[in-house]
Design brief:
The complex is a heterodimer.
Chain A: H1 2-17, H2 24-50, H3 58-75, H4 79-103, H5 109-127, E1 138-139, H6 155-177, H7 179-189, H8 191-196, H9 201-227, E2 229-230, H10 232-235, H11 238-251, H12 258-277, H13 285-300, H14 305-317
Antiparallel strand pairs in A: 1-2
Chain B: H1 3-34, H2 41-59, H3 63-89, H4 94-116, E1 131-134, E2 137-140, H5 141-163, H6 165-175, H7 177-182, H8 187-209, H9 220-234, H10 239-256, H11 266-279
The chains are: A mainly alpha, B mainly alpha.
Chain lengths: 323, 290
């Protein structure tokens, strides 16, 4: 265990010093890597640890982004405060969806379809709300300053995104060793057995979806203040949910480092593919390649890449993890 | 409320619902047998559209005849996808299955964009704007043809499943996978044919939609989501359910546009889907709950 912690400390140190050595463009790629690792980790809490598969996390991203942005634009509330309010809003919606889904005992693909349906209803509703810019979308006025969460260049965003990512790692690590986290895993593995041991399955699923939605919405605030443009199609469509879940699934679902590893692999790949192939005038080919990679990754690493790495490293690091 | 308008919308929704039914039939067949949600269903629809569109441009064959070619082409594609991807992921975690099928969707959709370009096409047919009047209700001829041919195609699928040997094996594998294995069914072949037939349904539906709407590489997405709603309404894996569910959703979306803007019409499908999921997850025509 000690080796792993010192290794992580070293990696963190390198990441903290990295901006001194790379260009602004590369920093931008790292911002996306951390952002998607954070979003994936938030999703991982619900699906990876507690079990119910959500394909509607774009809804929480959108709610967080819109609430904090509207608060900042109309009432002058700084996004640093607004993000927590957005998180609470998303959490309430998540709890409502969870209440329906879990109370009525939806499992597997049925819960997936429920989350898709709510996500799409959210997107269609947002598309028709005048205060959210209607069909035009919402442009965030650029007012640089720490209080406004707006900055020039990628450097401040790099450190904020890194902070988000480290925060999510800590939350999930604390969760992993806590009572809650162990209950999550128990009910993921066998709900009936968990229930028969006296675990309140409904309660812990609700905690998982509330926490997951809350954290996803915090990421939504970051997104809004990094991209400066919100449109229901770009923040709330099913495609956004797919982007969120892709990385943790490829990296290793239900593992601490899965989302980060998935994001470290997939985010630069999608960036490289995009910048190289759209220039050649072959629009779409980068997504074909990306799709091929996804399918290949699923076929060859059905347990995710992290469990593969674990298997390879086990003889070197010894028995460091109990799972 | 104008009764005539409602009747008019209900008729046109009912006719489009026939095509919805055919799309959902393919999805439900695939889910019923393999328990995999085909996230590439919308992309397959687009391929069916473009095959018909290309045949029309090259040889002048009408989409209402070339739907047979679209069905054939998509059968081959579906068979291939099942063999290379779906067959290997059937035992995986459901989230893994979703990602693999999304990968297939990305490949198919953007291949279509590479081949046929990103711009929408609206092919014109001789009968594009012709209509007949049934009392005070106007009926669009292309919609009527699309409806009749969709029902014909669905009937052909039902006959195939009911009377051919491989069709019987497909139903047996859907009922009881292990039982089918025990009596010596070649389950791999059955699965591949089944996925092919499901793809053929959606391919034919794509062809039938060509005279009705502009086609572009990304038109499949809303259809896929609507067909999710239909399959839930009718019952996952229930084929008659998919047919009737398609008609219901077609009418509901169309008549709903009296009350809400038509760009919001999908909310009706999703609302129905949520209610059915909560209150009757086995669907209107499913057997006992899952």
């Amino acid at each position: 265990m000690k080796i792993i912690y010192s290794l992580l400390g070293l990696i963190l140190l390198i990441l903290l010093l990295l901006p001194n050595f790379v260009s602004d463009y590369i920093l931008g790629v790292f911002v996306l890597i951390f952002f998607y690792a954070y979003m994936g980790q938030s999703w991982n809490i619900l699906t990876g640890y507690a079990g119910p598969i959500s394909l509607g996390h774009s809804l929480y991203l959108g709610i967080g982004a819109y609430i904090s942005t509207k608060l900042a634009m109309d009432l002058g509330v700084t996004p640093w405060v607004g993000m927590w309010i957005g998180g609470l809003g998303a959490s309430l919606i998540g709890l409502a969806i969870g209440f329906l889904g879990f109370r009525f005992g939806l499992k597997g693909v049925y819960f997936v379809l429920l989350t898709i349906a709510f996500g799409e209803i959210g997107r269609l509703t947002a598309l028709h709300l005048k205060p959210l810019g209607h069909m035009m979308g919402l442009f965030v006025d650029f007012k640089p300053g720490l209080a406004n969460f707006h900055f020039r260049g990628n450097l401040p965003y790099y450190y904020i995104a890194l902070g988000f990512m480290v925060f999510s790692l800590i939350v999930v690590r604390v969760l992993e060793v806590s009572k809650w986290g162990r209950y999550f895993v128990a009910l993921r593995e066998d709900e009936d057995a968990a229930e028969s041991l006296g675990i309140n399955v409904f309660k812990y699923k609700m905690i998982a979806i509330g926490l997951s939605a809350f954290m996803t919405a915090l990421g939504g605030t970051f997104y809004a203040n990094y991209i400066f443009y919100l449109h229901p199609t770009s923040v709330m469509s099913m495609w956004v949910s797919i982007e969120i879940i892709m990385r943790p699934i490829i990296g290793g679902i239900g593992t601490l480092f899965g989302p980060l590893i998935g994001s470290l692999l997939l985010t630069p790949l999608s960036e490289i593919a995009r910048s190289y192939f759209t220039r050649a005038g072959l629009e779409g080919i980068h997504i074909v390649i990306y799709g091929l990679l996804l399918v290949t990754a699923v076929l060859f690493f059905p347990g995710g890449i992290f469990s593969f790495i674990q298997k390879v490293l086990k003889p070197i690091l010894g028995e460091s993890r109990e799972s | 409320m104008d009764l005539n308008l409602v009747l008019q919308l209900a008729t046109s929704g009912f006719l489009l619902g026939g095509v919805y039914s055919l799309i959902a039939l393919g999805l439900s067949l695939i889910f019923g047998v393999m328990k995999v949600i085909n996230f590439a269903h919308g992309a397959m629809l687009v391929w069916g559209m473009y095959i018909a569109f290309t045949l029309m441009n090259w040889t002048g064959i009408d989409p209402f005849f070339s739907f047979v070619a679209s069905a054939g082409g998509l059968f081959v594609l579906g068979y291939f996808i099942q063999r290379t991807v779906v067959n290997r992921i059937m035992t995986f975690h459901e989230a893994m299955q979703v990602i693999a099928m999304v990968g297939v969707m990305m490949i198919l959709e953007n291949m279509a964009q590479l081949i046929w370009g990103p711009d929408p096409h609206s092919p014109h047919t001789r009968y594009s704007l012709s209509t007949i009047w049934l009392g005070s209700v106007m009926i669009d001829i292309p919609r009527l043809f699309a409806f009749l041919l969709a029902i014909l195609m669905a009937a052909a699928v039902f006959v195939f499943l009911k009377y051919t040997d491989i069709g019987k094996s497909i139903r047996a594998s859907a009922d009881n996978r292990i039982g089918a294995l025990i009596v010596g069914t070649n389950v791999n072949r059955v699965y591949a044919v089944c996925f092919g037939v499901g793809a053929a349904c959606v391919g034919a539906a794509g062809s039938l939609l060509v005279p009705l709407m502009p086609i572009s590489p990304h038109t499949g997405f809303p259809f896929k989501l609507t067909s999710f709603a239909i399959v839930i309404l009718g019952g996952m894996g229930s084929l008659p359910g998919a047919m009737i569910g398609g008609l219901i959703i077609g009418v509901a979306e169309s008549v709903g546009s009296v009350f809400i803007p038509s760009s919001l019409k999908q909310i009706i499908s999703f609302g129905i889907m949520i209610l059915i999921l909560l209150l009757r997850p086995q669907g209107l025509f499913g057997g006992k709950g899952s």
